[in-house]
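Residues and backbone
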Amino acid sequence: MRNSLLILFSFLLIMPSVNAQSDPGMAEVIDQVLSRAESQSLLLAKTMEEIPDALPRTVDKEGKLVTSNSAWWCSGFFPGTLWYLYENSGNKELEKYAWMFTNRINKEQYNKGTHDLGFMLYCSYGNALRITGVDSCNRVLLNGAASLSSRFNGKVGCIQSWGRSNKWQFPVIIDNMMNLEFLMWAAKASGDNRFRDIAVTHANTTISNHFRPDYSSYHVVSYVPETGNVEVKCTHQGYSDESAWARGQVWGLYGFGMMYRETGDKRYLDQAKHIAAFLMNHPNMPADKIPYWDFNAPDIPNALRDASAAAIMASSLIELSQFVEEPLKQNYLAFAESQLRTLASPQYLAETGTNGCFILKHGVGHLPGNSEVDVPLTYGDYYFVEALLRYRKLVLHR
């Protein structure tokens, strides 16, 4: 009997080390995922190399690669991902392809027909400039910032997102918060404070009109351009006008955290903290922290998850944790770590050579429009890699 108890006691002593081995530290998780991401991205780049002027977009229902031209709003994310991965490993092959796909977007610096130039140019040329210092990127970026600024209406106090239609006159979407970082950079790079003034005015107008009392956000707010009055508040990609479309919520979280970093204005930090609280404490946030595509989707808990929303949220929370005190700091980091670990699991992280050679599975682009539903998304990949690098730098200090 005594021997049996000794054996049992010895087994229990061993158990913690077994559990520790099955639950790798974040440094190990990040290294493994970034290695997988590099393999996938190089395979995708080589597939795309012989398709002139094209950029990867997603896969169709049969798993076939879908491409876009440079004018598609997501065109900057794949080159941006290549730049992040090159920054991580120093692999010169990544740099070669990063330049190749970045240069395919060059002409968009003159595109005044879109508000997405921050996504398109700052994620690509912006990272290229930051990592390599190649001066020619400056001119492309400043031209692009001028094109983006041309869509600003001083009466409204916002950059126009989409064109006028029978549904709205001057639509502004919450996604547009993400393009303000581009203008904040342009103000510093050029010395022209008009870029900064536009970004700040847009952010302030968004706080005033885009958010409900619980700090959830409308997707679209349209204005009367001649007066600046709100015309309508609605959705385009969410479940309903009053629902909380998941990716829209995290665009706002990321955008206001970034605006605090760039301005030091506590109003933006407070807004980001309120949005974070809405998301983290929402009763429909799943236990694994990967949001449903809309927090008010009628078929929860069977609604589709959006891996891209989780990646954007994790990246934002990691940065936001640097601006707040305990215990909020650790709350943000623990939540982001949980999201990254789930995204790094086989359920969401693609095996090498699968998933069209994209990194993450299970993104939801525009479900009401039946577009890009439960497929990989280039922006999901971009912000996932960004989040991993931010965690390693800001939390692990590596």
